[in-house]
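Deviations from the work plan: none for this task. Representative record:
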Amino acid sequence: MKIKRRERDDVIILDFSGEITIGKGDVELRKEISDLVFSEKKKILLNLRKVDFIDSSGIGEIVRSFTTIQKNGGVLKLLHLEAKVRDLFTITRLITVFETFENEKDAVDSFKD
Amino acid sequence: MMQPDPSPVTPQAPETFLVELNIPSDMDLIDLVVDLGTSMISLKGFSDDDVSAIRFAIHETLVNAIQYGNQGLIDARITVRFYLKGDCFYTDIEDEGSGFDPDALANPTLPENLLKATGRGIFLVRSMTEDFKVEKTPGKGVRVTFCRLKRQQPVE
């Protein structure tokens, strides 16, 4: 799993590619979020377009990221949930927790509200 | 991926297309076993949604068997069996642990559990498979069984 970090209009976008599973991505995500909290970044968007498989550990790490950012006064949102990933978020009702977007501009603009 | 299925599971049907593996509790072997299971189900004409569901279910159950069942002890063994019964693709995963009661696991969709980082694996496996059960095997350990019933292919 790879994470590429970029910034657009004060929003940090993390572009993921590959799998987010136990031992393959969950630890990298935790490190990235710790770094963003340390840097006092408050607006985080996880782009999951190129995530082809996620397991319950990966889902758990995204939830942990959400609560960590929130506890530090920030907001974390999700972009481009592929159909099977969206299914997992729907079954677990996490879709009711996260703000999700299919368009990057809409997602970035939503942080201005 | 998660559509309800109109056809009945037929656990009394004979087992065919059986493959059995016995592996150490090594996380590096998970992808190999998952690839075998998903290759078998693809060969028998299951849909892409079925393949995705069984990929997730085998992965999660193996992780549980290694981490919780065998407590990460690499020399503790795991037996995996893949087989067909009628239109159901069955997976048995047996570890050397003391087992768990799937009905006693907390429901991760309840408001008080929604923001917990763990506790979704077995819930998701049960949601996308049929005939899920956990059985003690005398003198051995615990066997988790589930099957995936072949869904109707969408009409094009």
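Chain B has one domain: 16-149.
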